[in-house]
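Hi all, long-time lurker, first post. I run a small reading group and we've been trying to get comfortable going from sequence to structure in the token notation. Rather than ask abstract questions, I figured I'd post a concrete chain and ask someone more experienced to write out its structure so we can walk through it together at our next meeting. Sequence below, copied exactly:
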Amino acid sequence: MAHSQAGYVGRFAPSPTGPLHFGSLCSALASYLDARAHNGHWLLRIENLDPPREQVGADQAIIESLKAHRLIWDGEVLWQSDRLTAYQDALDQLLSAEHAFHCSCSRAQLASRNGIHRGSCIAPLNRNDAAVRLRTNHQTYTIDDRLLGPQQHRVEDGGDVVLKRRDGLFAYQLAVVVDDAYSGITDVVRGSDLLSSTAWQWLLQECLNYSHPRYLHLPLLTDDKGDKLSKRSHAPALDNSCAEDNIRTALRYLGQPSPPPLGSLDAVLTWAAQHWHAGAIPHSDIVVR
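-- Answer (accepted) --
Happy to help. Here is the structure in token form:
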């Protein structure tokens, strides 16, 4: 595993479906400060596994925004598009152990069974035309969240999640688990919209004999209607020319103390890491006006 010499290894893992916006800046900043406050490593992974959804140039725009905001990662960028062999190896391991299975059922067919595969699929003549799904179980996992406290998740509530799509693309749930293990990630700091994915990822970690990282799920930034700021909702891109103002605003949203005037953004971030208090982060979503 990479970077396993550190006691703390965190990461920021955006998908290049558009430029960074204020919600993604808060996630990046929180994970960065949490890593620096623990004298740990902070890694950058670009999750470019879904070409149909990706925006041309978004990957470089994300990198430039992080640099402009002085959120500088350790080591090389990890590109998921370079990791296809690792995902296939993990998938083969899951299939061999019968933790995963080929499935030709449609979403509509599974909807009547709460997303859980029961009985036999229509046997595909060519398994390349089938998805691969994780075989769920009936366990309830109690996963301790550093901000929200113990969270109970039943894997079966989410159904048999897809690990590899019919079109041959590897799915997020598999790739994130394989890459977190490869990079030796000890702490995942991310938005609470991904809280529901944690049980699947916990199960996958067990099936693949990976260690479980610690989790901290952040409140979402929403508009007045309660809709999450996201690329899909056309949240405006960050203005890189206002980097220090953006960082100070993000610190306020994250419930952190306001740094004094320090003369440089690097000094602001150093001060913020020294005064970082994860317990001060709001538990409920934050309305951005």
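A couple of things your group might point at:
Residues 9-278 form a domain with the Rossmann fold fold (CATH 3.40.50.620).
Residues 22-37 form the longest helix (16 residues).
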